[in-house]
Design a protein that fits this description.
Length: 341
C-alpha cells in the first residue's frame, strides 16, 4: 500500500520543498527556486484554498505529496490563465496553395502566436522526488489534482489544459528555442522561461508578429515540434488516458505539446462523481481489490490517500496508520475514484 498522502502545502513544508525543488530539471521553471519564492507560493496557496467562489488568476493551489521523510512530490493547479496577463502559445496550422496555370501545388505548416488558452485552468508543476519514483507516486499525485477539481468545479474553468515539456538534446540544448525564440530574445532559455512565469508582456513585445513558416526551419527543429521531452512521455500518456488531447498548440519556448480537455470529461472527475465508499481502517489483504484514491467530503481539510477495494464494492480498506495521517475515521463516507482506468 502506498505510504503517501496528498494535501495542500503548509508553511512547515518549506525546508523539504526547497530541497525537492533542486531535483527539477531544465524547463521546469514553474517550480519555485529558493526559500523566498517557495514561501511566496505556499502563502498564495494557503489563501487560495481558504477562498470561496471562482478562483482568480493570481491564485495557485499547491499540493504536497508527503511520506515519512517530508515532501516527496509537488503539483499545482493554476485556476485562471490569462486574466491578469496574456498567456501565449503557438498554434500549428496547415497552409496549402496552388498555381493552377502552372499545375503546381505547395503546402507547409505555419506557427501562429495565439492566446487560445485564455481563461483555462492549468495543471502543472508536477515533480516527484527520486526516492518516490517507480512506485506509482507520479500517477497518484497527478490524478489527485483532478479529485480536487471535481469536488470544487465552481472555483475553476470548465476547460483544463497542461503544458508538456518539449524536446531537449542530451547536451541540454533545445532545438525549438535555438531556431526560433533565441533569435528574438537576447537572453538564455532559462532566463526567458523564468521571466515568463512572472510576466508575459515581454513576449508580445519581442516575439515575431507574423506567422513562422515551419518549412524554413532546420529539419532538426521541424521534427520535434509538438514532441515531449524524453522524461515527459509518461506524463503525456497519463493525461491522455484521462481525456486530454493535443489540439496543435505548442509551448512558445520549447515546442512541447499543450493538451486540453473539458473538466467534466476528465476520467477521474467522471468516476468520482458516481462513487462514495465507506472507510475500513484495516491492514488486511483483499483478494481481487484494486487501488482507489479517496478524499473526505464536506468541510474536512482536503487530503487524498490511497485504499484498496473491489470495483463494485462498498468499502475501501486503508491501513490504520495511513487513515490516521489522512484524518479518516473507520466507517466514514469518502469520495472515491479508481486510480487506474
Amino acid at each position: 500500500m502506498s505510504p503517501f498522502i496528498i494535501r495542500p502545502a503548509r508553511e512547515d513544508d518549506l525546508p523539504s520543498l526547497v530541497a525537492l525543488a533542486k531535483e527539477a530539471g531544465t524547463g521546469m521553471t514553474t517550480v519555485p527556486q529558493g526559500e523566498d519564492a517557495m514561501a511566496e507560493r505556499i502563502n498564495a496557496s494557503i489563501a487560495a484554498f481558504a477562498g470561496k467562489g471562482r478562483a482568480s488568476a493570481r491564485d495557485v493551489f499547491f499540493f504536497v505529496m508527503e511520506d515519512e521523510e517530508g515532501a516527496a512530490g509537488m503539483a499545482c493547479i493554476f485556476p485562471n490563465l490569462g486574466e491578469d496577463r496574456p498567456f501565449y502559445s503557438y498554434r500549428l496550422s496547415h497552409l496549402a496553395t496552388q498555381a493552377p496555370e502552372m499545375n503546381l501545388t505547395a503546402s507547409t505548416d505555419i506557427l501562429f502566436l495565439v492566446n487560445d488558452f485564455h481563461g483555462y485552468t492549468e495543471v502543472g508543476t508536477l515533480l516527484v522526488a527520486a526516492r518516490a519514483r517507480g512506485k506509482g507516486a507520479g500517477r497518484f499525485l497527478s490524478l489527485s489534482r483532478f479529485m480536487y477539481l471535481g469536488m470544487n468545479p465552481s472555483r475553476f474553468s470548465d476547460k483544463v489544459m497542461a503544458e508538456i515539456r518539449g524536446h531537449f538534446e542530451e547536451d541540454g540544448t533545445c532545438p525549438f528555442w535555438e531556431h526560433i525564440a533565441a533569435k528574438f530574445f537576447n537572453t538564455s532559455f532559462e532566463e526567458a522561461d523564468r521571466q515568463s512565469a512572472n510576466d508575459f508582456r515581454f513576449i508580445s513585445h519581442l516575439m515575431p508578429k507574423f506567422p513562422i513558416y515551419v518549412s524554413l526551419l532546420p529539419q532538426s527543429c521541424q521534427d520535434i515540434i509538438g514532441k515531449p521531452h524524453r522524461t515527459s512521455n509518461h506524463a503525456l500518456n497519463l493525461l491522455s488516458s484521462e481525456g486530454f488531447k493535443w489540439t496543435r498548440c505548442v509551448d512558445i519556448f520549447d515546442g512541447g505539446p499543450s493538451i486540453e480537455t473539458d473538466l467534466s470529461d476528465i476520467r477521474t472527475v467522471r468516476k468520482q462523481s458516481k462513487r462514495t465508499l465507506t472507510v475500513k481502517a484495516d491492514a488486511s489483504h483483499i483478494d481481487g481489490a484494486v487501488p482507489f484514491m479517496v478524499a473526505a467530503q464536506g468541510d474536512q481539510p482536503y487530503v487524498v490517500t490511497m485504499g484498496m477495494g473491489h470495483p463494485t464494492g462498498q468499502t475501501v480498506v486503508i491501513p490504520p496508520e495511513i487513515a490516521r495521517r489522512a484524518n479518516l475515521a473507520n466507517g466514514q463516507s469518502v469520495i472515491a475514484a479508481p486510480l487506474k482506468g
